[in-house]
């Protein structure tokens, strides 16, 4: 299934995407209005969701929202593609010897087609296409060989980064967490629809010009190793989001950073695309 949050007629509801249309699932008992809670109950509700045949809307009749707006965690790994790690090293950032994780504060989450803010206090705004993973079960100490069993699904992410703010503190969190700098979507594609999440082509363009293209198979630490590593430290909860790394071609390496008016499109094979326009932010008072 492709699970989506959509706004129509003044309310935001949960639906599924079938044949290019959104099917309203709000009348299915137990669905409610939180995708995080739905993910936690997905094994029990799956049959009813798959069979549901509610009101249908063309995609251009609705506004798609971030498929999860209330996760407890949004965690992201840095320098997880070899060529990207090399371009970072050329910029003076050492290649880590273990997995490098940071938080994107959940307040940064943004819709798949909503504007990205370019705050006046940010000088170097950048893009990063990433495969997003949604945790489906409460879990701890998961072995890599079992990790796929705790994945609910996948989404397209743009890990928007304020490069100058990344250098202002020992962690990446501030430079990764400006409001609107976490566009995700366009929906959650459930795990059963993807034969191999480690064999998906990712592509990012700015104003139609290709900047990034790579297979998820080029990760240094695959998504199962990531889940093992994280769950050694913390309990992962249903609806938690993981951004699994970006390949080479980011603006910081090429000098082609984002500016107001740019349109950034990120797409991943079988998962769809998100597209966001950069807009000038307001001077902080």
Mean pLDDT: 95
Number of domains: 2
Rg on CA atoms, Å: 18 Å
Count of DSSP H/I helices: 7
CATH class of the largest domain: Alpha Beta
The coarse silhouette is globular
How far is it from the N-terminal to the C-terminal residue, by CA?
A: 45 Å
Strand and helix layout:
Layout: E1 2-8, E2 11-18, E3 21-24, H1 35-40, H2 42-51, E4 56-58, E5 63-65, E6 74-78, H3 82-90, E7 100-103, E8 109-110, E9 116-118, E10 125-126, E11 129-135, E12 151-158, E13 161-162, H4 163-166, H5 173-176, E14 182-190, E15 201-206, E16 209-215, H6 223-233, E17 241-243, H7 251-254, E18 263-268, E19 272-280
Parallel strand pairs: 6-17, 8-14, 9-19
Antiparallel strand pairs: 1-2, 1-5, 1-14, 2-3, 3-4, 6-7, 10-13, 11-12, 11-17, 12-14, 15-16, 15-18, 18-19
Describe the fold and architecture.
- This protein has helices at about 35-40, 40-50, 80-90, 165, 175, 225-235, 250-255; strands at about 1-10, 10-20, 20-25, 55-60, 65, 75-80, 100-105, 110, 115-120, 125, 130-135, 150-160, 160, 180-190, 200-205, 210-215, 240-245, 265-270, 270-280.
- The protein folds into 2 domains: about 1-65, no CATH class; about 75-280, Fumarylacetoacetase-like, C-terminal domain (Fumarylacetoacetate hydrolase, domain 2, Alpha-Beta Complex), CATH 3.90.850.10.
- It is globular and about 55 Å long.
- With about 280 residues, the protein is α+β, with helices and mostly antiparallel strands.
- The strands form 3 sheets. Strands 1, 2, 3, 4, 5, 6, 7, 8, 11, 12, 14 and 17 form a 12-stranded mixed sheet that branches. The protein has a 5-stranded mixed sheet with strand order 9-19-18-15-16, with no helix packed on it.
């Amino acid at each position: 299934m492709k699970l989506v949050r959509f706004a129509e007629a003044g309310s935001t509801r949960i639906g599924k995407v079938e044949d290019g249309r959104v099917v309203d699932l709000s009348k299915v008992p137990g669905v409610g209005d939180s995708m995080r809670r739905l993910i936690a109950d997905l094994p029990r509700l799956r049959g009813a969701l798959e069979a549901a045949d509610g009101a249908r809307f063309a995609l251009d009749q609705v506004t798609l929202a971030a498929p999860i707006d209330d996760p407890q965690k949004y965690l992201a790994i840095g320098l997880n593609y070899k060529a990207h790690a090399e371009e970072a090293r050329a910029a003076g950032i050492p290649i880590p010897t273990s997995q490098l994780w940071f938080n994107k504060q959940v307040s940064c989450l943004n819709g798949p087609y909503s504007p990205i803010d370019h705050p006046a206090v940010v000088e170097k705004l950048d893009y990063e296409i990433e495969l997003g993973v949604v945790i489906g079960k409460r879990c701890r100490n998961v072995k890599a060989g079992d990790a796929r069993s705790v994945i609910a699904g996948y989404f397209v992410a743009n890990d928007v980064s304020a490069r100058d703010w990344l250098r202002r503190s020992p962690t990446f969190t501030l430079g990764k967490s400006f409001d609107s700098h976490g566009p995700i979507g366009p929906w959650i594609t459930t795990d059963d629809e993807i034969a191999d999440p480690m064999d998906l082509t990712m592509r990012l363009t700015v104003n139609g010009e290709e900047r990034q293209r790579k297979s998820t198979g080029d990760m240094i630490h695959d998504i199962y190793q990531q889940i093992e590593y994280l769950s050694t430290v913390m309990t992962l909860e249903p609806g938690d989001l993981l951004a699994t790394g970006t390949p080479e071609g980011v603006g910081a390496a090429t000098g082609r950073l984002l500016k107001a008016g740019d349109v950034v499109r990120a797409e991943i094979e079988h998962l769809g695309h998100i597209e966001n326009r950069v807009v000038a932010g307001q001077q902080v008072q």
